[in-house]
């Protein structure tokens, strides 16, 4: 196994995840099979219990793993299906070591960070690197490892030491270290400053790791004298100093790296030049160029709880982007805090209230994504009601589907107190109830998680036509509450159709309103399986409906064209 390690220096949030994904794309384009590991040095076992404000969205995998959003980048860029083991955290490592200690596996030895924690990290990395993730037999050729955080962080020290030992044990032909760093420009001087990167590399070398390549983040392309300075003081060949400057969209990054022969430097370090082919990135070039040349945009109202941090809905944003590009459109997302649509802000924050409603009324389609807790629920219900009554295309995901059921029960069935048990335990009309699969006391990994099958009740529904499958679809879930099976009959009599159910027929997965141009709610999360060039069917349906092109698209596809 060959390893490519990506570390970060100077500051966090430099785009190590996109860099790691782009390097993987470059190696894939050379005919190599690639897998990825993300190391998160926090003590949480996984990302499942973290607030989206704290750490961005929680990405869900096929096997139910709740992981860091960088694994979403890897899946989208590399078109692979990762496992929860591909996300290594301090919590998982310490838990496994402590479990072994309690079982007496260390035969009375004093259990220490070195060697026991570092050995556990090495063993975990080597085992996970062998798991095939691209649907083929046998392990990949190269494993790209991203070490979260910044070099010098106390919490990542055991990982740095373990990776130093790993680099020594696998040999120099099997290990390539790429250090991502920042080259700032001070406003007054206007000069590209290399000193922060010099210090960062010095810190890394003091810990026993020497970078083979530097990936320098900057606003503008690096000047030649900056590169020479970095080469001289960081002990890295000038040809191995890569510049990742700001670009119009992230699909340019693999092309940017190819143009600087990054793949060649990595292949040379890993002694793979003889088996690799010249990189074929034709599809990426077309995609990046297409996006840059788009002029027509579609206005999408995103009504959610965590709109203050767009990373909270990263996969939803990417899925919208993939769908829009398939329709030759640019996404123009209006972020609407659901609480701003409610009645209270009309008095307390009239400007925010007016702006939120103006954005909603100007939108060509409405999307209500997933979330937990009762904040902003009333605003989401108002958004669903607006979309339903005004024939505006609507897609509700997870909580967004439950919102549309509550709204329909209140507005159409006249059940004014209809609610979800999540928001009101005492509601006389619980149209959404707690799901028996989960646990009320433990938060982590207790939900209905991962890929589950949804059976379409009729091949004539919009959803099955969009998926081009009259029978079923497999999508990823992350939820505790479900639509109450006892109210399905009355809701269907009133016009709301549940066209997708699970294999037991008791869990509602997809709802549609046949009298509406596009009013769809899904209990699963279709955004997690959207890929560049292969958009999620439901997001594509939403964008097509926003432009009045859905019926023509479905007719064309039914005729096999």
Automatic annotation (TrEMBL):
UniProt keyword Cell membrane, yes or no: no
Chemical reaction(s) catalysed: UTP + L-glutamine + ATP + H2O = CTP + L-glutamate + ADP + phosphate + 2 H(+)
Listed InterPro entries: Class_I_gatase-like, CTP_synthase, CTP_synthase_N, GATASE, GATase1_CTP_Synthase, P-loop_NTPase
EC number: 6.3.4.2
GO MF assignments: ATP binding; CTP synthase activity; identical protein binding
Pfam families in the record: CTP_synth_N, GATase
CTP synthase N-terminal domain segment(s): 2-272
Ranges where the Glutamine amidotransferase domain occurs: 309-543
Protein origin, superkingdom: Eukaryota
Pathway: Pyrimidine metabolism; CTP biosynthesis via de novo pathway; CTP from UDP: step 2/2
GO biological process: 'de novo' CTP biosynthetic process; pyrimidine nucleobase biosynthetic process
Gene3D superfamilies the record matches: 3.40.50.880, P-loop containing nucleotide triphosphate hydrolases
The entry's keywords: ATP-binding, Glutamine amidotransferase, Ligase, Nucleotide-binding, Pyrimidine biosynthesis
Keyword match Nucleotide-binding: yes
Chain's role: Catalyzes the ATP-dependent amination of UTP to CTP with either L-glutamine or ammonia as the source of nitrogen.
NCBIfam families: PRK05380.1, PyrG
Family: Belongs to the CTP synthase family.
Record PANTHER family: CTP SYNTHASE
UniProt cross-references to HAMAP family, sorted A to Z: PyrG
Protein name: CTP synthase
